[in-house]
């Protein structure tokens, strides 16, 4: 009898809209279409380092779409932060590689942003297989048109700033508003495009109007 293939899923970095939907879609497709066993790695790369995981079930995936966050937990752990990790007994990267192999994972699905995907690529260099799902409101992942979480963040920023118009008009004020987006500036740029604001500034550009 052929053993079931095993897919590991972890969510790393800050949470973003759409994480639960992405986990659900990945896990159900793996289980129902391909007959795979799905292993949920708890709290991102920290869970892979500390070997904290559980088998994902259909019951766990039921009714999760209406809530935010991630059912697996997340952390900002960086396994390769130790530059001498190959010779370090306490290196997180060494533990990641060992536990990946001990779990007999055929692939690791990483739902994360720029730093999380950089770590995943480093694991690939160690002959581990991974699937990339770009999750970030910054939309700053290379070779990726649109990351999930970005559109929701854009909608929320647009709605929140629109609500400030009456306050600004009532007090005859000019408001300077800062929007998240790391170093990419996509939220700021597309926010201006959506509502034709008179002036905006984002990393890499001079003040424009």
Describe the secondary-structure layout.
Blueprint: E1 6-11, H1 19-33, E2 37-41, H2 44-50, E3 53-55, H3 58-61, H4 92-102, E4 107-112, H5 114-124, E5 130-134, H6 150-170, H7 186-195
Parallel strand pairs: 1-2, 1-4, 4-5
Antiparallel strand pairs: 2-3
Describe this structure in words.
This protein is an alpha/beta fold. The protein is built from seven helices and five strands. Strand 4, helix 5 and strand 5 (130-134) form a beta-alpha-beta unit. The termini are far apart.
Roughly what is the average pLDDT, rounded to an integer? Answer: 83
SS content category: alpha/beta
For the sheet with most strands, the description reads: 5 strands, mixed
User: Roughly how many Å is the radius of gyration?
Assistant: 20 Å
Briefly, what is this?
By secondary structure, the protein is α/β, with parallel strands linked by helices. It contains 7 helices and 5 strands.
Keywords, separated by commas or semicolons:
single chain, 209 residues, alpha/beta, five-stranded mixed beta sheet, 38% helix, globular
């Amino acid at each position: 009898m052929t053993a079931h293939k095993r897919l590991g899923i972890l969510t790393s970095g800050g949470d973003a809209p759409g994480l639960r939907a992405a986990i659900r879609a990945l896990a159900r497709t793996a289980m129902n279409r391909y007959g795979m066993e799905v292993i949920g790695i708890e709290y991102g790369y920290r869970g892979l380092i500390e070997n904290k995981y559980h088998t994902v079930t259909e019951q766990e995936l039921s009714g999760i779409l209406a809530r935010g966050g991630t059912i697996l937990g997340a952390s900002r752990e960086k396994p390769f932060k130790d530059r001498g990790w190959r010779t370090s007994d306490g290196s997180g990267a060494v533990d990641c590689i060992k536990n990946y192999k001990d779990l007999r994972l055929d692939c690791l699905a990483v739902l994360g942003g720029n730093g999380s995907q950089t770590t995943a690529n480093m694991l690939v260099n160690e002959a581990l297989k991974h699937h990339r799902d770009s999750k970030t409101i910054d939309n700053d992942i290379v070779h990726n048109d649109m990351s999930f979480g970005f559109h929701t963040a854009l909608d929320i920023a647009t709605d929140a700033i629109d609500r400030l118009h009456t306050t600004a008009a009532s007090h005859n004020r000019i408001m300077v508003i800062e929007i998240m987006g790391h170093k990419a500036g996509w939220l700021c740029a597309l926010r201006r495009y959506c509502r034709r604001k008179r002036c905006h500034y984002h990393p890499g550009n001079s003040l424009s109007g």
